[in-house]
Amino acid sequence: MAWKKKVCTGNTQVCNAPCRIKKLALEHSAATTALIYDQFKIDGLTAGKKVWTLRTLTNKLTDEIDFGDKGAFFHEGCYVDHNAGTVLVVYKD
Questions:
Q1: pLDDT digit string (tens) for 26-76?
Q2: What is the residue-wise DSSP string for 39-93?
Q3: Which CATH code is given to the segment(s) 4-92?
Q4: Is the CB of residue 86 less than 8 Å from the CB of residue 27?
Q5: Biggest CA pair distance of the chain
Q6: Helix, strand or coil for residue 23?
Q7: Where are the domains of the chain?
Q8: In angstroms, what CA-CA distances link 44 with 13, 58, 80, 81, 90?
Q9: What is the pLDDT of residue 42?
Q10: Residue 25 is inside which H or E element, if any?
Q11: Checking CA distances to 55, which of 8, 64, 66, 70 falls within 20 to 30 Å?
Q12: For residues 39 and 47, is the Cβ–Cβ distance under 8 A?
């Protein structure tokens, strides 16, 4: 199965079942953060399921993580929590 791409411009459920994440990339014109969770959101996010934080700074407007060709396995799904910028997620479900 081929990798899919999703561009998140706000809080976004990327997948609601087990999936593999190949790459996460945050871009914004100012300092901001994006929190990445191994869960799908129904009624709230669980702090213990946060697996990654992407952060831009005023002098570094992008941040990314590439998990390689096999990707990182997310057991429950993937949810991106952020309020500014865009997050590109490359994934397989």
A1: 999 999 999 999 999 878 899 999 999 999 999 999 999 999 999 999 999
A2: S--SS---GGGEEEEEEEBTTB-EEEEE--SS-EEESS-EEEEESSSEEEEEEE-
A3: 2.60.120
A4: yes
A5: 38
A6: strand
A7: 4-92
A8: 12, 30, 12, 11, 23
A9: 78
A10: strand 19-27
A11: 70
A12: no
